């Protein structure tokens, strides 16, 4: 999968960063100061636990919260009764395993989620102003001492700030670190379980194992599925930066990803990603789409007096228009296309769905699609 969230973050702006998965990194990230061990801590042998954080048959709706614009906050407070979990995109780390605040951390929002009945996760990523940092991921994952310090710091974060768990979103990991990442998952799970905390992890979607793939090669689905409590499959960016134009997540592609994952990860641990943004492909930049909110996409259709077409085969809405000689083709996700994807989650008895990201969605998603989930 050619998921380049860094570019998405850079381009998803409407006056300001609105759609991005970016945590709103501004100036120098503030270093947190949890205790550093400076040496390898002995960890017990990893368990191949199949337990789920949910009760049997329970399905969750998870929302990703980011600082870009005010939309995430508004959606969180408006829809908290319909959210089971919220992952706050607020933390990064350095090469020594120390954590950094990479967002506008407002713990009152975490408390809002928890008081509303949702679990709150501190999301930790390797994203900076230039994109996902592959060398950083390698430095931390490949060094046993640093990796252990990183794990200790993650656990300390959950206890000091009263998080229900950790959400890991480390991307663009070198393929050579596949085993290191799997070991990290096992070790982190053991450490979190000792504190009764949850391990949630986001990984690139794929329908076959290509060990050389830049985005998905480092993810061993089977090993990750043994360790993590929840595995969010990022079933979006089927087409994105660096690819030809096309849907964000066609139904056939999502089905292939889920079928591949089910053979390696317990169904009840799989949380299927739902993209709620739009992509705008223009003829003078054919492999570099810009990203829009649902509302902005609808506004463009109305402004240019064009009809939104629905591809019945791919279950994808899209429309085109030409202005000043430049052709634009916009793919989006609406309640109809998201309902079709939600049916995949239901049919396969998955653990839930995850919305990327809160605040940019079709507002009727909550009343028309998720009400019966």
Estimated share of beta-strand residues = 15-25%
- According to CATH, the homologous superfamily is Glycosidases
Strand order of the largest sheet: 4-5-7-10-11-12-13-19
CATH class: Alpha Beta
Structural class call reads alpha/beta
How many domains, in number, for the residues? 1
Give the beta-strand count.
19
Distance between the termini: 28 Å
Helix content: 25-40%
Q: Which architecture does the CATH hierarchy give at level 2?
A: Alpha-Beta Barrel
Helical stretch tally: 11
The ordered string of helix (H) and strand (E) elements is HEEEEHEEHEEEHHEHEHEHEEEHEEEHEH
The rounded Rg comes to 20 Å
Overall body shape = globular
Largest sheet: 8 strands, parallel, barrel
Given as residue ranges, the uncertain stretches (5+ residues, pLDDT < 50) are 1-18, 20-52
Provide the CATH topology: TIM Barrel
Round the mean pLDDT to the nearest integer and report it: 88
Signal peptide: 1-20
GO molecular function: chitin binding; hydrolase activity, acting on glycosyl bonds
Keywords: Glycosidase, Hydrolase, Signal
InterPro entries: CFLE_GH18, Chitinase_II/V-like_cat, Chitinase_insertion_sf, GH, Glyco_hydro18_cat
